[in-house]
Amino acid sequence: MTFSREDYAQSLKEGREKAHSNGRHSLQDISMVMQAGLSAESVTNHPDWDRFLSMIQAAIEKTDEQRQGYRELLESSALVDPNEIQKIRVQLIICNERISAWKVVIDMPKELMSNAADAIDIMERMPSV
How far is 61 from 122, CA to CA, in rounded Å? Predict the structure, then answer.
């Protein structure tokens, strides 16, 4: 079973709500999220990150072309062998999963920085000891 990006986000949200239903947050967890956000910010402001993103984008485009080719093969009336159909379906699934994984990598720093902002907000609202 595969999860969509929305399923994953909903699962994270439910986990956070369950973990923090009592209104208490682990300082260690908050600190780690804040550090990850700072690290993500320093990475994304680096020219190597832009080069990395362009490489991922090129890989996404190449895989999307492959995926389109597999779709066209599946629509072909000349394809009748069930084993070949299954092989092409598997390749199509692999292409879809690769593209999904690369998109998660692209969005990861944004997610880390967003979560870091939430962690900072929680820290500011916590009563000082």
Answer: 39
Domain ranges within the chain, ordered by starting residue: 27-123
The radius of gyration of the chain from alpha carbons, rounded to an integer in Å, stands at 21
Going by C-beta distance under 8 Å and a sequence separation of 6 or more, which residues neighbour residue 56? 102, 105, 106
User: What is the identity of the amino acid at 23?
Assistant: G
pLDDT in tens, 37-80: 556 666 667 788 888 889 999 999 999 999 999 999 999 999 89
Cα separations in angstroms, 57 against 42, 87, 95, 102: 21, 26, 14, 8
Task: Say whether pTM exceeds 0.85.
Answer: no
What is the dihedral sign for C-alpha 72, 77, 81, 86? Answer: positive
